């Protein structure tokens, strides 16, 4: 019984690692797609401001993600997807697009990636 | 259950937003609701005059500037309202210097102001147990009003029968509100009594407006001489409980609460 529990636990850990790897892969694919669309990513670019006028100019799918993030303040893709009722992987893609556009910042803490517009004081 | 933020907005100025915001807030307080009314019209602050309230040294401007906590801004007005609920107001600074300063804010400030308006929900609803926050906004499409709309759960748009107002309201609700999936209702205010002198005339006008806006029409409020005569010197629904305007505001208050409890899809389906 104990051996069964151990093997179950290690299977869960393996699945979790696979999920993390797929997430990282998705993020990299998003970056490649974005570079193909808009040319080279300029990491030195001054980040743009995510004010209401910017929100209005965003496509519908990104606006929903951006407004939700503004409301939550700081969130993982999972937390944003909980509000928008869209799949976590979809929100992860949209959040990374917003990062590439310079509107949102991303910070890794352990296994989780946190997204935010501006650091809370 | 967490309360709701109701933004009272209009395309043009002078439609009666402040009059309706003040009387809506007072109607809810009389019903026992805990309400907070904020003056978000930083270019033409008016709530201080409507309630004859002196500032307490802290203004909504200070909260949005990040220099004070929101609770310092709130002024409680219960004894004047004669209701069982609590009524707080958050005033905009009417000093010319403050108006000038607010007009010169940059995009980054506006972004932070949006964040602070959005965080009102968690800070005030949890701490003071409010039922509703009401935003009295500035007219048209400018930063402070769009920030208010984005932060609100429900938008109540006050319009007149003026053709440019109807057209502008129509464009604004579909090109701004719909983008943010905002639950919206329209109030037609200051309508000449002759235009809806019979129930059938009123029904026809309601139907016409519903088709134009494709949104729920909360109510049509006639132009009352007594309300104009009061000139915002007192809270009309408190001082004149017998007046038809007070009865209409009671109905409006119920319909707005119904709007807050509907979903965006339900609101559009019933329009």
Provide a descriptive summary of the structure in words.
The complex is a heterodimer of chains A (121) and B (271). Chain A is mostly helical and 121 residues long. Chain A has a single domain, classed as Winged helix-like DNA-binding domain superfamily/Winged helix DNA-binding domain (Arc Repressor Mutant, subunit A, Orthogonal Bundle), CATH 1.10.10.10. Chain A is built from five helices and three strands. A three-stranded antiparallel beta sheet of chain A has the order 1-3-2. In chain A, strand 2 and strand 3 (112-116) form a beta hairpin. Chain A starts with a helix and ends in a 5-residue tail after the last strand. Chain B is an alpha/beta fold and 271 residues long. Chain B has a single domain, classed as P-loop containing nucleotide triphosphate hydrolases (Rossmann fold), CATH 3.40.50. Chain B is 50% helix and 17% strand. Chain B contains 14 helices and eight strands. In chain B, strands 3-4-2-5-1-6-7-8 form an eight-stranded mixed beta sheet, sandwiched between helices. In chain B, strand 6 (154-159), helix 9 and strand 7 (183-191) form a beta-alpha-beta unit. The two termini of chain B are 26 Å apart.
Mean pLDDT of chain A: 83
Return the CATH topology of chain B.
Answer: Rossmann fold
Low-confidence stretches of chain A: none
Compute the number of strand runs of chain A.
Answer: 3
**What number is the mean pLDDT of chain B?**
89
The shape of chain B, in one word, is globular
Q: How many domains comprise the coordinates of chain B?
A: 1
Query: Approximately what portion of the residues of chain A adopt beta-strand conformation?
Result: 5-15%
Q: State the assembly state of the protein chains.
A: heterodimer
User: Strand fraction band of chain B?
Assistant: 15-25%
CATH class descriptor of chain B? Alpha Beta
Main β-sheet of chain A, in a few words?
Answer: 3 strands, antiparallel
Number of strands of chain B: 8
Widest sheet: strand ordering of chain B: 3-4-2-5-1-6-7-8
Number of helices of chain A: 5
The CATH level-2 architecture of chain B is identified as: 3-Layer(aba) Sandwich
The CATH topology of chain A turns out to be Arc Repressor Mutant, subunit A
Query: Which segments of chain B are poorly predicted (pLDDT under 50) over 5 or more consecutive residues?
Result: none
